Amino acid sequence: xxxxxxxxxxxxxxxxxxxxxxxxxxxxxxxxxxxxxxxxxxxxxxxxxxxxxxxxxxxxxxxxxxxxxxxxxxxxxxxxxxxxxxxxxxxxxxxxxxxxxxxxxxxxxxxxxxxxxxxxxxxxxxxxxxxxxxxxxxxxxxxxxxxxxxxxxxxxxxxxxxxxxxxxxxxxxxxxxxxxxxxxxxxxxxxxxxxxxxxxxxxxxxxxxxxxxxxxxxxxxxxxxxxxxxxxxxxx
Length: 236
Description:
Layout: E1 14-15, E2 24-26, H1 30-38, E3 43-45, E4 50-55, H2 59-66, E5 79-85, E6 91-99, E7 103-108, H3 113-122, E8 130-133, E9 138-143, E10 155-160, E11 163-169, H4 173-177, E12 181-182, H5 184-193, H6 209-212, H7 229-235
Parallel strand pairs: 3-12
Antiparallel strand pairs: 1-2, 3-9, 4-7, 4-8, 5-6, 6-7, 9-11, 10-11
Helix pairs in contact: 1-5
């Protein structure tokens, strides 16, 4: 059954096209919504994105060995972006996440969670890690970076000029939005203006990190081996 956000019941909501189906493209006035985000206000429903939780004492070292990012000493609460590459260096998954001291949380593109969990499970071997798809329990919402609720311990996944991505209980999604919802059209316009790549929108199955501008933000160039590193190093 296709996902449908409860926020589509808000006045003026118009559903977005795939791959963003299930959430609002806008709430009747995308230009006003874009101005809201541009001035540090407004909240964007990103609840169609997948949420993955990796727990266990070996999680950071294990993720460090698999991804493009330096994660083995990631401090609790520090947000990060990491990629999973094919053996030839093509980008397969982009993870926006944070470790809370007990587990690493990440949100990913809609429809990719199953493939990501299957791959991670296949790479566990004897490592003390557990991989869970918790999309049914948690959702992603972009909220203003100045939102006072962020100081109350919200778990952040990414912080930028538009605001902060936060993990919220899915059952309480509508309660977190406030009175200034903004749709994906406004969100995407500002993302593109900021030159932030999006997997599957700005990439295809042959894209390498350098082509999309992920070097620096999602790729650490001074770390140990990981799948696809040879391509990254050679092109760099």
